[in-house]
Amino acid sequence: MLTLSGLSKTYKTGDTALADVTLTVPEGQILGLIGPSGAGKSTLIRCINRLVEPTAGEVTLGKVNLVGLGKSELRRQRRRIGMIFQEYALVERLTVMENVLSGRLGYVPFWRSFLRKYPGADVQRAYQLLDRVGLIDHADKRADALSGGQRQRVGIARALAQDPELLLVDEPTASLDPKTSRQIMRLLTEICAERGLPAIVNIHDVPLAQQFMQRIVGLRAGRVVFDGSPDELTEATLTTIYGEEDWNEMRRGDEEQAKAEADARERMEALAQ
Predict the structure, then answer these.
(1) Which of 37, 51, 79, 48 has its CA nearest to residue 171?
(2) Within 10 Å of residue 87's Cβ, how many Cβ atoms?
(3) How far apart are CA 99 and CA 161, in angstroms?
(4) pTM above 0.90, yes or no
(5) Which of 45, 85, 138, 167 could form a disulfide with 89, with the two C-beta atoms 3.0–4.6 Å apart?
(6) Is-contact 64 74, C-beta < 8 A?
(7) 85 is a domain residue
(8) Domain residues for 129?
(9) Where is the ABC transporter domain (predicted)?
(10) How many C-beta neighbours within 10 Å does residue 29 have?
């Protein structure tokens, strides 16, 4: 279980990115973070694993408060947190298998990682994970030969290779087309359900969040302004989260995208006849 208590982040410029965020994510729950650009979504995720240092508050994973840990202990605790990035963060020149195995770096001696000689059990586990994300036939391909959706699947497998107790997912569909986005979100939710794994997903696509998230937290100017189920996310609530102008613009964009997808399907059906 993850608990955030009074989590805040103020930069040296005086800008406040997070203000007194308090919430609990129980085992197995998938929580979606939504809000306008600059609301603090990415900062919140990065404060949890201390890629960004919080100004105040506590981040408790299980019974361990991650805030204030020294470098050595923080490195050990970070093994419990899998991170999936928007831009994949793969080593392009390495193979898919080598990228997945990099999820074990926190568990093996330096010489093993330097020589790329991982224990047999880790290699076998990596093959199992690649099979689970549908990439077993791509194990020996270089990462830069993959599509965006395939790269994101590698990122998921790499995070799972850590055997994490928590997943942090930062805009996993921002660079993907609508169909691939749904496939990635479905894969993430299935894996979390299989493992009882809690996850926090920073997601910009509101309909996608409503479709796949169990719980949604809305941030605005670094503060929690909504915390509830997708069914409770009304038009009025979304206007509160995004502001009237931004929400209306987002809604128009979603409608245009839906129409474009429908037109594309009609063209494909016409060509098939």
Answers:
(1) 37
(2) 13
(3) 10
(4) no
(5) 85
(6) no
(7) no
(8) 94-163
(9) 2-246
(10) 18
